[in-house]
Structures are given as structure tokens and as C-alpha cells.
Amino acid sequence: MENINKKIPQKKSVALLVLLSIITIGIYPAIWYIKRVTELNNLNTTKKLGKTVPIILLILEIISILVFIALLAIIPLLFLIPSLAIILAGTITYVSWGIYILAAILFLIAAFNFRSLINEVLSRKGTNRKISILFTIFFNYLYLQYEINRTIDDREYAPRTGPGIWFVIYLLIILYYLYVLIIPLFTNS
Question: Are 117 and 151 within 8 A, CB to CB?
Fold first, then answer.
């Protein structure tokens, strides 16, 4: 009777997760992690997840938005006190880079904690498949939700076409920007 009331992971549209991330200016991934902790902990695994890392991520995302707003607020100072505006902009830029680096590290920690728990669930289902490390790094919570959806649908052994296609698109975009932005720097000399 106790298991009936427990909330377990549900299928979610990965495209909807991308849209929510855009609409919330990057805050939704931390919310996704916070919401999924309880669901994944209800799967009777030996490992349990905590909410500390996702909550810190949420706080960092909110701070990064506030830092960006502060950077925009400095623009009028450029006309009034240019030297002060440049010093403030430089300081805020360094702070924002620190926040981004810390957030990236925490996103990877959260992703790999979730990955290990989902791998335990897959192992308990009798599969020897593991969630991809590469896709976990590049697509983070989107890939984890994709794998949760596959597990719910009992498609663990089906080919993983979606992440592979998006990974190729991702690489092509990076190559395009390298071609457009980097190569002209060396050829115009």
C-alpha cells in the first residue's frame, strides 16, 4: 500500500524541457533536478540523492540573472563616469565567470549523481546497458530525461538515435562558429 502513494519519475517531453529552459532564462534545469530528486529516491535504490546541489544551482542561476541585470545597469554610467563603469563592468564580468564555472561543475555533479542512480535502476531491471557518459556531459538533464523516458517505455535496448543526431548537430554548430569566427582572425592578418 505504501508504494501506491509514492511519486515516481514520469515521462516528460525533452522538447518541452528545452522550451521551459529558454522561457525561464536558464532557471528550469535546476528546478528539474529539484523536482526529480524525490521521484528518483522513491525507486528503492541503495543510493539516494540530496537536494543540496540542485538548490545551490537554482541560487546560482538566480544570482547570474541578477549579475546580468547589474551589468546592464552599468551602461548609463559609461556616459557619466566612464572609468568607474569600466571597473564595475570588469568586476561583474569576473564574478559572472566564476558563477558560470561553479554552475557548470555543479550541473555535472548533479548529472552524474542522477546518472549513477538511473544506472542502478537499469541494473535492477536486468539490463547491462549504462547511460552514456558523453551524452550526460553534453546534454545533461535533457539526456537524463530522455533515458528516463526510454526506461519507462522499456526501450533500454533500442538504439539511441536522438542524442546521436543532436550531438552531430551540436558539433556542426561548433565547427561553423569556429569557421566563421576563428579562421577570419588568422586570414585577415
Answer: no
**Cα–Cα distance, 105 to 87 (Å, whole number):** 27
User: Which helix (H) or strand (E) covers residue 16, if one does?
Assistant: helix 14-23
| This prediction's pTM | 0.80
- Return the exposure string of 90-111: e unless at least 16 CB atoms fall within 10 Å of the residue's CB, then b: eebeeebeebeeebeebbeebb
3-state per-residue secondary structure call for 87-145: HHHHHHHHHHHHHHHHHHHHHHHHHHHHHHHHHHHHHHCCCCCCCCHHHHHHHHHHHHH
What whole-number distance in Å separates Cα of residue 93 and Cα of residue 60?
15
pLDDT tens readout for residues 12-44: 999 999 999 999 999 999 999 999 999 999 888
- Check residues 172 and 27 and name the one with the higher pLDDT: 27
The pLDDT value recorded for residue 5 is 60
Cα 40 to Cα 31, 60, 86, 102, distances in angstroms: 14, 23, 47, 25
The answer to whether 57 and 110 have CB atoms below 8 angstroms apart is yes
- 1 pLDDT more than 50: no
Q: Do the Cβ atoms of 24 and 74 come closer than 8 Å?
A: no
